[in-house]
Amino acid sequence: MVAVTVSQVTKRFGATEVLKGIDIQVPDGHFAVLVGPSGCGKSTLLRCLAGLEEVTSGSLTFGERDVTSLQPRDRDVAMVFQSYALYPHLSVRENLAFGLKLRKTDAATIKARVDEVAEMLGLGPLLGRLPKALSGGQRQRVAMGRAIVRRPALFLFDEPLSNLDAALRAQVRVDIRKLHDQLGATSVYVTHDQVEAMTLADVMFVLNGGVVEQSGRPLEVYEAPASRFVAGFLGSPAMNFIAATTVAEPGGEGLRARLGDGSVTIALPPRDGLGAGRSVDVGVRPHDLELCAQGEGDIELTVDFVELLGPEIHAHGVLAGTKVVACIETSAGAGIGIGAVIPLKIRRLHLFDRESGRTLR
Amino acid sequence: MGKRGIIDGRENEEPTARVPGPAYARIASLLVGAATLLSAAPASADEDAPIQLWHAYRGAEEDALAAIVARHEATGGAPVELLALPYDAFGSKLGASIPLGEGPDLYIDSHERLGDYRVREIVAPVGDAFEGEEGFRDNALAAVTLDGEIWGVPLSQKCVALYVNQGLLREVPATLEGIAALQPGLPEGVFALAYEAQGAYAHAALLGAFGGSMLGPEDSFGFVGEPAIRSLDLVQSLIDRGAVPNDADGALVTDLFRAGKAATAISGPWLAADLGETDVDYRVVQLPKVEAAGGEPMRPMLTVEAVMLSPHGAQKPEVRALAKLLASREAAEIRQATAHTLTARSDVPLPEGDAFLRAFADQAEVAIPMPSSPAMRATWEPANRAIKAFLRGELDAAAATEGARKRFDDVRRPPPPPASPTPLIIVVGLMLLYMAFGMVRAARSGDLGPALRRSLPAYRYVAHAVIAIGLLVLVPLIIGAATSLWAGRPETGHYVGLANFVDILTARGGPLLATGSFYLVLLVTLLWTLSNVVLHLALGVSLGLILARPTMKLRGIYRVLLIIPWAVPNYVTALAWKGMFHRQFGAVTGLIEGLNRAFGLSMEPIAWFSKFSTAFTANLATNVWLGFPFMMVITLGALTAVPGDVLEAAEVDGATRWQRLWKVTLPIIRPTMLPAVVLGAIWTFNMFNVVFLVSGGEPDGTTDILVSEAYRWAFTREAQYGYAAAYAVLIFLMLFSVTRLGEWRAKVKADREAAAVAEAVAASGGAH
Ligand SMILES: Nc1ncnc2c1ncn2[C@@H]1O[C@H](COP(=O)(O)OP(=O)(O)OP(=O)(O)O)[C@@H](O)[C@H]1O
Ligand SMILES: [Mg+2]
């Protein structure tokens, strides 16, 4: 129930700078997700928020309070660890009550709150057990419960689902979001799973190499990635990138892109300040490639491998010397096999500057 | 073998009579072989075997013996096999072999053991090995004569005399008081006389001047009455005048004299050997006279080394001939020339101008042969304690010596009357019957056959371990337990049932918390164990926590340094610490003096071993030093099992550093530490070395723990093995029940947890 402001935060471990000036704002009650590839500094940032690491420079503000140099226990945050970090020597009930006891809460309140949370998470029958007698999913719930029971102003999650199997992950993902809505506290959630990021976030921060590459609502970021990195990171299968050079439309106003080895050109929608002869990357999401009638396609793909996923088909092929994937509805694409040449319409494309990787709008 | 039975369970197909498998055959043949060997051993001892001669000589004395034996063989004597044994092990080796008809035909030992050996029948009268009284000194003959018969042929004599540092003292005063009067004129830090004032052996010389002796007539305690009191008062006055160091032991006397810090010293020929090549210009003279005793001379105890014959050796003429030769004039001359020892013969002239031997020879004339009665051994402990208690100022001389007499009489109290072995036989019989009954029942229930057959192959794998454990652990345990039902000396002992236990548990009829009573010693042992374990844990865990910190630099070096105390053999450490706690010359006193100098303080040096509290502290410090590395290592290991993120979770949950330690780290490592604590407690409970070597039970046996007390009953109090064994059994029972209790509680707890889990699983219907 606080707004979180991270401004100009850097963090170095010895000579290596892990966070290189992070600016983040999470409005009160929002669910923020930090995504990024492994090693980009997500956990480090989260641990800085928790107070487990000191920032090298910059400041952290929770609501009105500057917490930059406060101890973890004075920050009123709760954290759910990737490995759950349950107290192995305490029963589930004692695990839940631990933080409250340290804060000298009276016994009746502790019992009421623990029971309430146990009820909420379905932990009732497990209260007497030690963590070693729990399954992975149960441990995860206890870890959640331990955070919830404290009623903190801010929840921090560090990849809390990564140790669960796929089915359970999907279910708990939903539970977490529901709990958040129910409790109304601000949450910061770290993951490198872009599905979790997309589904959970009110606001999403894409980290890369210690800087925030882009932030915004998940769909905005998905739809309008600010850079080639963000575009490639979000979406599954990942966006197809094809190196290209812009050429003037022979005898026309617009521009075309000569793709890869130059064997294919496609028409480009107009872009501000884009002239001919620029080196660019053309990005097309696999789902933006649509099967069409022979001769109507923007491109033709020679299929060399097919994955059947049920609702859709992933057709892999080579376009102008670059590997490309297209996602086609199973009903439309029945009968596509290896060696087939399929015409595809490009529904939407993104253009990125080759040098900087920034999106050209 | 037996496989078919395992697979289809058709036991009736197994042949009923089995040929033993190869492994059993091997074991059986081994047993048979061992039996044959044992029975054949006496028979194989044929007539031509060389004469077995055991001794405890080293160095020049050993050379001299070898030379004499070589001459004997060269002149056509029977071949001789020499075996040198450590002096301390000598008696027990003789006792273990001679009664079986093995061991030496003859051996060389100190005369004071004769009484003991005679009772144990490991020595026989020398018969014609003794050539007649003419050639021997009277004192030497008196020493080996028991009830009018000669039991050993005297070789040499040893006693203490007075060493004089000629650099400090030109003229030696004739009296002890005269020597003490020199003190004011001596340089700072030099004592007029160094000797073991607190030891009964050295004190005996003074006692002798007053006409007393440690062992009185008819094996009564001699260190009482007028001579005891007056001799003690004299020592006190010598110490009060600063003429004699208060608590010197043998090593310190040597050091003081060698360093020129003692004008005179009372010691034996061994001091000369210890001094070796030294700058100190010294000579040896007879011990002074004592004015307070009317000018009588000090009369030290005399030890005579003699050839003794084992009963089987005494039968053989060639053995007796060898004994005679060893004691002959020629042999004595060789010994005197080679080893510079004082011969027991009167007809061997001393080398011209050898003042050293002359002095010891004169001294031996007035020395008193140490009584050879077995009761002599029981005088040392009470006499030593009485002297110490008196010099500490705890008791006056009369009370101290009277107390010593009581203690002596208590130790020498006749063993309990023989008890009827019937109850024991009935109990053992019932147990056997019960076992037999159980086996029959198991056999009849029909499970035994297949069960046995199934497990037989497994027994093959564990057989050697079972046999080894049985021999090394079970057999000694049973023998030890059985010994506790006997009383008296080993060879004359008899079955007394539980009388030893009754004696111990009733504190020998005295007050329950009297000095040396079982209960007081038990209390001290518990205090000892508890304080040690607490300090081991506190120190070990703290250091472990510090060393485990990731920010710690040079961790490896510290770890090795801190483990060193553990790696050094503990008796070495114990002796080093004892030295440090020495009142006059220890490192601790040095430290106090250093502090005094540096800060102008006036702290008194502490006499560590004269009060229970300080003596206990000294023991404790030593054992804590020895014990903390173990706990530290265990802690370091246990700490690796504490996940870092759990500590971080606690931090976020609001725990301070201190709360994280007490509520997270320590509870998590607790289960790993617990067995180590139990082990440490057991080790400490039985930490004989430290108690025995550092305080030695001082003052007055109050810092003794149960094991050291048991040791004293067995080895310094008349070899009361049964009584000592009863102590050992009680110690065993206590430790055993405590560990079982611990295991039982752990099991109950585990069961309760398991039940809770089962209940919860049932309740949750096995969700997730
Ligand atoms: N205590 C530390 N000392 C030195 N370097 C560290 C430390 N902690 C993290 N790093 C480095 O900082 C970088 C970021 O680490 P961080 O744990 O934040 O990554 P992450 O984004 O959480 O990755 P993942 O998705 O794999 O968990 C990594 O290169 C890591 O090696
Ligand atoms: Mg991480």
How would you characterize the overall build of this protein?
The complex is a heterodimer of chains A (361) and B (768). Chain A has 361 residues and is an alpha+beta fold. Chain A has 9 helices and 21 strands. Chain A has 2 domains: 4-225, P-loop containing nucleotide triphosphate hydrolases (Rossmann fold), CATH 3.40.50; 240-353, OB fold (Dihydrolipoamide Acetyltransferase, E2P) (Beta Barrel). Helix content of chain A is 25%, strand content 35%. In chain A, the strands form 4 sheets. In chain A, strands 6-7-8-3-9-10 form a 6-stranded mixed beta sheet, sandwiched between helices. In chain A, strands 13-12-11-14-20-21 form a 6-stranded antiparallel beta sheet. In chain A, a hairpin with a 2-residue loop joins strand 9 and strand 10 (211-216). The relative contact order of chain A is 0.12. Chain B folds into 4 domains: 3-157 and 303-368, D-Maltodextrin-Binding Protein, domain 2 (3-Layer(aba) Sandwich), CATH 3.40.190.10; 161-299, D-Maltodextrin-Binding Protein, domain 2; 422-505, no CATH class; 523-719, MetI-like (MetI-like fold). Chain B is built from 30 helices and 16 strands. In chain B, strands 1, 2, 3, 6, 13 and 14 form a 6-stranded mixed beta sheet that branches. Chain B has a 4-stranded mixed beta sheet with strand order 8-9-7-10. In chain B, strand 4 (145-146) and strand 5 form a beta hairpin. The two termini of chain B are 47 Å apart. Classes of the chains: A alpha+beta (361), B alpha/beta (768). Chain A binds chain B through residues 50-52, 71-73, 77-79, 81-83, 85-90, 98-99, 102-103, 122, 125-130, 133, 135, 137-138, 146, 150, 156, and chain B through 643, 645-646, 648-656, 659, 663-664, 667-668, 670, 753, 756-757, 759-760, 763-764, 767-768. The site of adenosine-5'-triphosphate has 11 residues of chain A, from helix 1. Adenosine-5'-triphosphate binds next to helix 1 of chain A.
